[in-house]
Design goal:
Helix content: 25-40%
Strand content: 5-15%
Oligomer: single chain
Radius of gyration: 22 Å
Strand order of the largest sheet: 1-2
Order of helices and strands: HEHE
Number of helices: 2
Distance between the termini: 65 Å
Shape: elongated
C-alpha cells in the first residue's frame, strides 16, 4: 500500500469539502447537527488510508480551546437520471406523413 502524498490528501479534502458545501446548500438542516466553532474532519467511506491520514492531520492541527472535532463521513452516491434528447429533422412539409 503506497502512502498518500500531501497533495493527494489536500486534493481529496478539497473535493470532499466542495461536495459537502453543495449538500449543505441543498439540505441546510444538516448544520443543526454541527456545534458552533467545530472543526470538520472529512472522511471517505471508501478510503480508509485517506481517513487515517486526515484524522492524524486533524489531531496534529492547532485549534482553539473548546473547539470540538466533528467527523463527516462522505459516501459517494450515483444517481441515474433519464435524460431526454430532442433530435431535429428537416422536413419539406409539416403535414407530410
Amino acid at each position: 500500500m503506497e502512502k498518500l502524498t500531501p497533495q493527494q490528501i489536500t486534493d481529496k479534502v478539497l473535493e470532499l469539502t466542495e461536495q459537502f458545501n453543495q449538500y449543505v446548500f441543498a439540505t441546510p438542516e444538516i448544520l443543526d447537527h454541527i456545534p458552533d466553532k467545530a472543526m470538520l474532519v472529512f472522511l471517505d467511506a471508501n478510503d480508509p488510508e485517506f481517513n487515517r491520514a486526515n484524522i492524524a492531520l486533524a489531531h496534529a492541527a492547532p485549534r482553539p480551546a473548546g473547539t470540538s472535532m466533528v467527523y463527516v463521513r462522505m459516501q459517494k452516491r450515483v444517481r441515474m437520471i433519464q435524460q431526454v434528447e430532442w433530435e431535429p429533422e428537416i422536413v419539406t412539409s409539416p403535414l407530410v406523413t
